[in-house]
Amino acid sequence: MQDFLKERNQASGSRLFSFIRERHLSPSMDDWPPGVEEEYNIQARAEEAEWQRKGSELSKILEPLRGLPRIIPVVDGYDEGGRPLDRKPLLPKARQPMLDYLESAPIIWSEPGFDKDEFIPGEFDVPRNYRTDGTFIWSGAVPHYLGKHNFRPHRWLVRHVFENDFPTIDVDNERLRRAEAVITGVPASDILRLARVYDGRDAEGQPIFDRLMPISDTFRTTLLDYLESAPIVLAARGFDEDELTPGTHDVPLTFHTDGRWIWSGAVAHYLRKHGIPPEEDLAHHIVHNEYRLPEISDADKQRAVAVITGP
């Protein structure tokens, strides 16, 4: 939009000059022949109407993008040897706080494996993920390069963090969906989040639950009601193994949705049997809904199945 306004202002400024030059007129309108000034005004109004039409069309195109976070460029370009162009390093006292900020943001997209480190040929250790603070989105390469090579993040992100004095990141579900829409190209209103059952695995392959949210008996019961009452959109016969009690097969092979989130039967199972709450974003979402399931359409259920089963 800024480029459009700049072009429009330049066109407006050169309109009178071009009119005078093409007709060999005096710079002063007072010296123009009768009727010429009116001819100029008619032409100016027609051109201005065309600019207004273009501006209206551009606004319609940009409207879906308003409020969406911006993706941070990892590098500014490459030198002749294919190495990223240098950036001024952060001061030592700012480096760790910036790294903590970048790595504390929620992950909105990830996939297994690693990308190549563009500073060390042949080394593949760059995480394949994207994070957001609601204002900007950055790939796993941004904190990786800062931590490993002291490669400064893009100036937009640095200025945003510094000017806001390293704010605490708190991204609500709506802003998460908008960020996911930017990365995936799917409209934010259509994005469904798939809840994690656990947060990783240790060296022995055992589940890790990194959830410090306190949970009372009343809250636990309310969460269970919500999780287990949501419609089942996909199910299989039998039961899966409880990974916290090996040899016991009592985990439901089901998936539920409320139209915004999808979770497996294991989420409610581990809460009911072991007191392990769902991931915090899902719990906050349930609280935000006041523990009441919304109306869930057939289209919502079909989209949930598509997310679960993949392409």
Helices and strands in order, then pairings?
Blueprint: H1 2-23, H2 36-62, E1 70-71, H3 92-104, E2 107-116, E3 124-132, E4 136-139, H4 141-149, H5 155-163, H6 173-184, E5 193-194, H7 217-229, E6 232-241, E7 249-257, E8 261-264, H8 265-274, H9 280-288, H10 298-309
In short:
This protein has 311 residues and is an alpha/beta fold. The protein is built from 10 helices and 8 strands.
Would you write up a description of this structure?
With about 300 residues, the chain is an alpha/beta fold. It has 3 domains: about 60 residues; about 120 residues, no CATH class; about 120 residues, no CATH class. About 45% of the residues lie in helices and about 15% in strands. It contains 10 helices and 8 strands. α1 runs antiparallel to α2, α3 packs antiparallel against α4 and α7 packs antiparallel against α8. The protein is elongated, with a radius of gyration of 28 Å. About 0% of the residues have low confidence.
Q: Features of this protein?
A:
alpha/beta, 4-stranded mixed β-sheet, 10 helices, 3 domains, 311 residues
Give the ordered list of helices and strands: HHEHEEEHHHEHEEEHHH
Tell me the major beta sheet.
Answer: 4 strands, mixed
Helix content: 40-55%
User: Which assembly state applies to the chains in this document?
Assistant: single chain
- The count of helical stretches stands at 10
Overall mean pLDDT: 83
Please give the domain count: 3
Overall radius of gyration? 28 Å
Q: Largest sheet, order of strands side by side? A: 1-4-3-2
Low-confidence stretches: 61-66
Strand content: 15-25%
Query: How would you describe the shape?
Result: elongated
